[in-house]
Structures are given as C-alpha cells and as structure tokens.
Amino acid sequence: MSIYYHVRKYGNILKQSVLVILMLLACLMIYSNTIHSPFAFDDHPFIIKDSHIHISTLSFKNLAHAAFSGKPRQRPFSNISFAINYYFGNDNPAGYHITNIFIHFFSGLFLFYLIRHTILLSAPVFAGSTLQAGQQDSFVFKPENIAFMATLIWFVHPLHSESVTYICQRMTSLAGMFYVLSLWLYVKGKLSTGIPDKINHKRIIFFGGCVVSGGLAVLSKPNAATLPVMILLYEWFFFKDLRFDWLKRRFIWIAVVICLVCVFSIMFLGNSPVDRILSAYTRRDFTLSQRMLTEFRVVIYYISLIFYPHFKRLNLDYNYPLSDSFITPLTTFPALLSILGLIGMVVYSARKEPFLGFGILWFLVTLVIESSVIGLEIIFEHRTYLPSMFLIPAVVILFYRNIRPQWVVIVALCLLIFFGAYGTFQRNAVWQDEIRLWEDCVQKSPEKSRPHYNLGCVLVKRNLFDKTITHFSKAAQLNPGHSDTHYNLGYAMAQKELYGPAIDQFFKALVLDPDYAEAHNNLANALSKIGRSDSALKHYREAVRLESDNAYFHTNLGKELFAQNLIDEAISHFRRSYQLKPKNLENLNKLGYSLFSRGNVDEAMSFYRKALQLSPNNGETHGKIGDLLVEKKDFKNAIIHYIKALEINSSDAQSHYNLGIAFYKMGRLDQARKHFAIAARISPDLQAPNLMIK
Q1: What distance in Å separates the CA atoms of residue 346 and residue 348, rounded to the nearest whole number?
Q2: Which letter, b or e, does each residue of 259-271 get, where b requires 16 or more Cβ atoms within 10 Å of its Cβ?
Q3: What is the rounded distance in angstroms from the CA atom of residue 677 to the CA atom of residue 682?
Q4: Residue 461: exposed, middle, or buried by beta-carbon count in 10 A (0-12, 13-18, 19+)?
Q5: Inter-axis angle of helices 388-402 and 288-307, nearest 10
Q6: Is the separation of the CB atoms in 171 and 221 below 8 Å?
Q7: Using 50, 70 and 90 to split pLDDT, how confident is the model at 44?
Q8: Whole-angstrom distance, CA of residue 170 vs CA of residue 162
C-alpha cells in the first residue's frame, strides 16, 4: 500500500478523534451544572425507596435480584445500572448524573457513526443534489463533517435535558444508546467484506453485537421493541433502494420481524395484552379513546418542541388538554391530517430524499408504543429522545443538500448548536433545586394538582409550612379525591399547631382510604394535642393494627398509653418498637423512663446507656441517667450527668432542679440553692422544697 493511503487513513482517524473529543467536551460543558442536582419526582420510588437496588456487594445474585425485583420490573438492565450506582455512591446523586451524562455521550457517538455510514451509503443522492460544482469535495461537505454537525444539533438539543438530567429517565437514554448502537452494528455487518468461501468473522461479530445491543435496548426500556422494524426499513431504504420486489421476496423475514415485535409486546404486557392495556386505564383520569385521540395532537406538539424548544415551553409535568372527539378540541382532526400528511411526504419523497423519508418513519415508528393505546401518562418530553435521533439529522442533511452558499450552512448550523447548547444549560439549571423545578411546573401547569402537590412535598421537607399549606390546599381543590394530598395538608397544618383544620384533613384522607395507617397515626397525634386522649388512643391502635411492623407507630402508641397510666401495655409497645428499630433514640428514652417508673432501675439504665451510645450529646438522656443514679444514691455520678445535660442545654430547668437535689443530698447546700434559684427563674413552677430554703 502507498504512503498516501496510510497518511489518509490515519488522517481520517485523527480527524474523527478530534470530532469525538469535541462532542465529549460539549456534553461535559452543557451538563456540568447537573452533577449535584438532587433526585426528583420518580427518582424517589425508583431509586431512593426501592430497597431491591440497594446492594452492599457486587455479586451476580444481588444484581439479578435488582434486575428483576427493582421498579419497574420490565427494565432489568436499567435496574442493574442503578444498583451499581448505589453500590458505589449510595444516595449521592453525583454518580448517577455522571453515568447519565456518559450514556448521552455514547448515544451521540454511535449516532454520529450511524449517520456517517448512512451518508456514505447515500452517495448517489448527494451526487444528484443541488450543490454547486466543487462543493461536494469541500471540507464542509465531507461525510464525517456533515454527520458531526447533524449529530451535534441533536446532541445539544434542550429537549433532551429531561432524558439526561432526570436520573430515572436513564431508562430512556440507555435504551436509545443501545438502539442506535444495534442499528450501526447491523450496518457495519452489512458493509463488512471477507475472502470468498471463507467465514466472515467480522460480519459474525457485528451481527452478534447487533443482537446483543438490541436485546439490551429492550431490557433497558420496552419501547425499543420497534428495533426490528427499523432495521428492516433501514435495509429497504439504504441497501435495497426501496425496491418492492425485494420486500416481496423477503416475506418470511418480514414475518419474523412481526413475530419479534409480538414477543417483545408479550414480554411487556403478559399473556393477556388487551386486559393489561385496559386495566391501566382504571388508574387514569382519561379513557382509552381520549388518549388515542389526544396523542394525535401530542405527536404534533412533540414536533413543535423539536423545532422550537424554547425554555419557556419545556415542562416536566404538562397539563395537556384531552381530546374527547375529532372536533373537541378543534385541533384534533387537523393533527391527524398532519400525521397522515407526514406519511404522504414519506411516500412522495422517499426516493429523492431518503434521509428525510426514513427520518419521518423513524420518528413515527419509535413513538408508536408510548403514544398509542398503552395507558401511560399523556405526554413527557423524554419520549422524544429516541424518535428525534434520526429526524433531526435528516432535516439537517436536507438543509445541507439544498442550501448553496457554504457560509450560510456553516453560520446557520453553528448558531443552532450554540443556542441549543445554551438552552440545554439554561434548562438544566431548573433541575438544580427541587423547589425551583416544581415552581417551574406550577407556573406552566397552574391548574394541575400534581405540581402543586409535589411542590408542597418538597416545601414540607424544608419546614416552609406556610407555603406548603398554600400548595397542598390548591392541590386538594383541584383533586379532592387524592388521599395523600389531604394527609400532607393535615400534617403541614399540625406543624403550624392548627390542630382543628389538621384533624379535618386527616379525616378526609381516611374517608378516601380507611386503611391509611400514617393518617391514623398523625390524626392521633393531633387529637392528643387537643386533649382528646380516648380518640387518639383509638387511632394509634388502628395505625399499629394496619402496620404492625412500623416501629414509630408502636412508640407513639406507647407514649399515649403511658400518658393514660397504662404503663405495662406501654412498655410492651416500646419493647416491640425496640425489636423493630433498635436505634430509635426517642423509643430508647421512653422505654428507659417507663421501666424506671415501674422500678426496673437496672434495665432502665441499660436502655439509657444504649441511647447515650447513639447520641452522646443528648441532654435528655444524660438527665434521665442522672435521675437513675440519684435513685441508686450515686450522687457523684448523677451530678456529672446533670452537668453534662446543662452543658448541652443550659436553660433546661428540670436538670437545674435535679442537680440541686443531688447537691443537697451530698450536703453541698450553696450549690443546691444556686441551681434551685436558676430552675425557679426559668420555670416558676419549680420551686425548691421548703426544707431546703434557709
């Protein structure tokens, strides 16, 4: 081979390496402000609260358990990735975000190579384009440069912020990565050449990789089940020049593709797909017909977001109006006509503009699972991640082929990349704080209950109870049938000591869900605060009956029983709470105190010692140990613990008073009078006994 061949070969490798590095830098730059963004929305049930992925050792058994027991169960490979993240970083979101960023990078990388190979396959189309003489050989119009620019516009698109920054939507980006990798490996397999009459090992490797990647795509998210259809369409568009005679001769392969899609559907929907689909609508506030009609408009709305992704239009939780018929609203039927028009455009332009035709089919086919009959939420932006993968590059390539001055192409595409990257960075900033995220949703979906509810849930964690009550009240007004809203509104009101309104909300929650254990427990707390002890005891007992393994419920029941002088029963519940949660500090102190009240000083001391091990600087525990030591006439050590309690909280009147008692018992009357005086000053009810005042 000539030196020129080697120079050109390694020059191309170097050039592609530079493009890949530029893509990586772009990815790191636009998503750099997401690394410390908190978990949000479905991240909590799917990651934080899903104990199945909380593995402590990397073993096949643990990973298999995480794969098939994690939520949701139809996405085992995604669950494995979350389990690995948890193993290395527990609940630290940084590791999850870094993983998501690199998944997005590899999605873009594989898409770049797929687009590049597709451009090379479509060389005759480019040769017949309206490019001026000499343009096709220019730097701008080299296949790798076209592929890079086309991919980069998809790569920095603000619409993908939800797929990358929203941690649990790794399911979407991971499926997209393997989906496009599978198709690229298929193309590589088709293009690989070997020695005649010899086994083509490269082709076997590429096709094997195609199958494995396709399987991982489906195991990441079931919407990748359309992959066999897209491989068939790609073959027909770019390898068989859209010949119908080829389709007729490949009838068996078409049947195999249909069977594969059916198998994937059964994997997701089970043996009774119709029943599974219909059952999903029992949990929705829309019907099957409403969803199907609405999705015509949603698909067109997705297209509008792809071409005009202004940050003011982007929203995590849309309040998208439903379609009740083809004319309600009036945009429903035009949306259907628009989709039919897109299909007509494919038929009309497929031979002349195969990129565009395939891009439109890619968009429609990859959307069909999540935008048709399955009872999913009406709209989410992350659903455009995979469908836009070929549509955006197809439009960019159409632009390349039909815009003649090179500088116009360069400037226009660079501006699109810049504004796309800026928009993504700006949108990512919204995800940096959960309050900001849900305030954004409330602003854009003010008449939807869920954004108000979720904002309230975040606010209550920050102890911002006034704002919490405002948003929970609005959520309850918009959706009065949601028991959690009434419960959380009651909880926030109770924190503000609005016990009457709180009790009303807890009762509303229990009317909707009589077995709501948390509502019974917090209703009992509120009733106890206003002196309705008998009613409180009734609801504490009901909470324990409903959730007998909840340690906190046993502690609360024990406290109420103790307050009503039912000490032995109280001790039994404190003991049960200790069995369930040995490191519950409050319960250890309550158990110690109740045992002390029954005269079990030594056992009480053992539980107080355990409490002190958990929290060495807990003033209450030091004070109670001091009381026990006084009972045992160990006044010297009692004084040590009382002093420690006062070092922690110098305004604790009871500790001053008890310290005075200990000093008095030791004959240190001046010290005793000093602490009696301090106790009386802090709490006038704590006056020194008459015999000590001289």
Answers
A1: 6
A2: ebbeebbeebbee
A3: 9
A4: exposed
A5: 40
A6: yes
A7: very high
A8: 10
| Contact (Cβ atoms closer than 8 angstroms) between residue 326 and residue 293 | yes
If we measure between CA atoms, which residue out of 31, 105, 42, 97 comes closest to residue 75? 42
| pTM (global) more than 0.70 | yes
Q: Residue 560, Cβ neighbours under 10 Å: how many? A: 23
DSSP 39: P
- Domain coordinates in residue numbering, the chain: 3-428, 616-694
Q: Any bridge partners for residue 328, and if so which?
A: 325
Locus of tokens 């794969």: 67
d(CA 671, CA 450): 60
Each residue of 500-520: pLDDT tens digit?
Answer: 999 999 999 999 999 999 999
Rounded Cα–Cα distance for residues 646 and 675 (Å): 11
Please give the Cα distance from 30 to 28 (Å, whole number): 6
SS3 of residue 560 by DSSP: helix
The answer to whether 110 and 203 have CB atoms below 8 angstroms apart is no
Q: Please check whether residue 55 is in contact with residue 89, taking contact to mean a CB–CB distance below 8 angstroms.
A: no
Residues 678 and 657: beta-carbon distance below 8 Å: no
pLDDT average, residue stretch 467-494: 98
Q: Which DSSP helix (H) or strand (E) runs through 421?
A: helix 406-430
| Length of the chain in terms of residues written | 694
If you search the block for the tokens 């590791």, which residue do you land on? Answer: 95
Beta-bridge partners for 100: none
| Widest CA span in the chain | 116
Cis peptide before 72 (omega within 30 of 0): yes
Taking CA atoms, 87 is separated from 41, 58, 93, in Å, by: 22, 7, 12
Neighbours of 576 (CB within 10 A): 20
Residue whose entry in the numeric block shows the structure tokens 């604790």: 652
Q: How far apart are CA 578 and CA 572, in angstroms?
A: 10
Report helix, strand or coil for 269.
helix
680-684, Cβ contacts within 8 angstroms, sequence gap of 24 or more:
682/651, 682/653, 682/656, 683/653, 683/654
Residue 588, pLDDT > 60, answer: yes
**What confidence tier does 140 reach under pLDDT thresholds 50, 70, 90?**
low
What is the token pair recorded at 404?
């003649």
DSSP conformation class of 46? I
Its sign, for the CA torsion 458, 460, 466, 471, is: positive
Nearest residue to 598 (alpha-carbon basis) of 572, 569, 568: 568
Domain 616-694 maps to which CATH number in 1.25.40.10, 1.20.1260.10, 2.60.120.10, 3.30.70.260? 1.25.40.10
